[in-house]
Each structure stands twice: as structure tokens, then as C-alpha cells.
Amino acid sequence: MKQVVVLGAGMIGRTIATELAERYAVRCCDVSQQNLRLLAAHKNISLLICNVRVEKELHKAIEDADLVIGAVPGFMGYDMLQRVIKAGKNIVDISFFSEDALTLDALAKKNQVTAIVDCGLAPGMDNVILGYHSTKMNVVDFVCMVGGLPKRRTLPFQYKAPFSPIDVLEEYTRPARIVENHQLVVKPALSEPELVEFDEVGTLEAFNTDGLRSLIKTMPVKNMKEITLRYPGHRQLMEAIRDMGFFNQEEVDLHGMRVKPIDVTAQLFFPKWKYEQGEEEFTVMRIIISGEENGKSITYTYNLYDEYDKTKQTSSMARTTGFTCCAAAELILQNKFTQKGIIVPEYLGKKEKAYRFILDYLSERNIHYKQTITIKKK
Fold it and tell me: Containing H/E element for 16?
């Protein structure tokens, strides 16, 4: 039986470990014994307390791995990925770090490693879908709207964090890179709010965030942007808190102690953003791809709506992110994808068999990207 090592036992890491343990031996590693304890009852999952930032501990954890899954917080993701590649291990990563993974491409090729990165929901499935359509048509416009939200709206935040909360705060502070008329444009996070209707949830508010990532380099599309979805009112509150300096990274003096405002804010926010056991939430996503195909002006729209799985007690964000990662993992484990180097998800989408495999894998797990096609007459 092949050995898969999952680095990170947070909500999404645990979902990935549980899913892959149905077919493989899985070792789940985390510095938190509390996180690991939640997996203690699962067969085919061994547990290891491990600090992946310590090189010796990481190497010991992955030395017999046929595949590594990276599911650590973004601030430690790049270093972890680099060390896994140096160890010669194939990896699928969803750590969503701020650094450019493509800078490790030469290292991955030198070590004969397949490293699929950013392979979650968004970034992830939106890249896969865009990559596929880029081989069939001349794409002119690409928009991805995405959000994960609690069903129960509670003031003041009307929000809870389905993944690493510190990475959520990054969305509210990191300038948003978008593409307009083939030019890279940088706009403030949370900018250009608009209201968007969704059949299942009604009105949500959309705003700019820095989610295009590798697409800026790999996709020569005229206009591209990713926008985040929240309940109306949340964006304005986060903007006010940001503008008052509560998300600042620069240390300030507080009674003789040097502290980062964002660390204090995180300490206060995170308990309020934590989902309760069994709390229902949902994921909503809309991908719009427009351009020319076979001489026609055409628009493909993909809509995803997914809810908390009550039977398996699995969050929607963990399902939609984690199962995409698992599909990519299966491509490697089944030797269906062997290309070496840093593989961003749009590269997977360009391979039609990989694209179909991922969509089928998700559909089998009741995650459905519903496509509609609009053709405009010239």
C-alpha cells in the first residue's frame, strides 16, 4: 500500500487525510496534538507530532512517502515546499503562500519532482477550468467569484474562517493584482465592491482580492480578476478595521513591549471566527469565461454551491478544497500525471484527461460545477 504523508492536521488537512486513507496508508503530521487527536479513530492513519519548520523533523516525517500533501498555513508553505522538493518527494500543495512557487521550478525538475501547487478551490479549480478552456478558445475575459460563509449570520462579522484565519486577514491587506487590457493593475484589497445575486443564498457582496496568482504569468488573457464574496456589511467593517491600523505588520511599542497590531487583532478575532462543532456553512463560486470559439462570441459560466456534509460532519470548504487536492493526488499516485517541475493547476486543465478526471472525481463526491453556455450572435 502506498504511503501518503499529509503535513498539517487543520480542518482541510484532516479532510484530505480521511479521504485518502480509504485507499492508502496515511501519516498525518502536525505540531498540534489537539489537531491530531481528532484523527485518532481513523484506520490507515498514523499520527506524528512534527514541526515542519524543523528540517530534521520534516525529513523524518516524509522519508518513506510516495506522495506528500502540503496543508500548512501560508506563512510556512514556501519553505516547506522547497524542503520537500529537495528531498525528492512528489507533492500536492494547498498552503497558498505569498511567494511565487514557479521560482522553484528548476529545483523541482533537477530533483525529478512533480509538485502540483495551489490545488484547492480558488486558487485551484478556477485555474483548472480556465486552463481547459484556453486550449479550446481565445479567452478574453475571466472572472472568478468565491466565498465560504456560515449559514447563520451573526453580527458584527457575519463571517467565520473555514481555513487558516491568518490567511484570511491576508486577503484583506494584500493589494489585489488584476489584469486589465493585458496590463497588470494593482488595486487595494476590498476595493470596487458590488452586489451579486446567487439563487441559493440571495445577495452577496463582492470585492477585489489578490487571487490570480500564477494566472498572471501563465495565461495571456486580456482581462482577469478574482473577487471574494461575503455577506453585505462585512467588507465595510474589515475596511474600517484595516484603515485604523489593526492589521498592520509593523511593531509598535505597548507599555515597553514590541507587538504587531495584526497579532493582537488575530488573537481577538480568531475565537469569534471559529466554527462550532457541526455548524453549517456553505461554499459558493462562480467562474465566468468569455471569448471567441469557432468564430462565435461565447461565455461559459460555472456555478458551484456546496453545503456542510451532515452525514460525515465535513465542512463544505474542506470538501471543495480538500477533494480537489485529493483528485490531483490521485493523478500522481495512479501515474496518470508524471510531468516534472512546478505544476500550477492551469497546467492540469490544459490536459483534457486530467481536467475530466478532476471534475469526475468531484462529481462522484457530490461536488458539481454546473456549466451554462451563452452564445452571442455577431
Answer: helix 11-20
User: Which amino acid, one-letter code, is at 316?
Assistant: S
Are the C-beta atoms of 158 and 235 separated by less than 8 Å? Answer: no
Is the same domain home to 67 and 110? yes
Indicate left, alpha or beta for 355 from its phi (over 0: left) and psi (-120 to 50: alpha): alpha
Bridge partners (DSSP) of residue 291 are 139, 298
| Integer Cα distance of 277 and 122 in angstroms | 25
If you ran DSSP here, which 8-state letter would residue 14 be given?
H
Residue 374 in any domain: the answer is no
Pair 267, 261: CB distance under 8 Å: no
Q: Tens digit of pLDDT for each residue in 63-121? A: 999 999 999 988 899 999 999 999 999 999 999 888 999 999 999 999 999 999 999 99
Output Rg (C-alpha) for the chain, integer angstroms.
20
- Provide the residue type at 280 as one letter: E
Whether residues 199 and 273 share a domain: the answer is: yes
User: Do the bridges between strand 281-293 and strand 138-150 make them parallel or antiparallel, or are there none, so unpaired?
Assistant: antiparallel
Residues 173 and 286 in one domain: yes
Q: State phi, psi for 55 to the nearest 5 degrees.
A: -60, -40
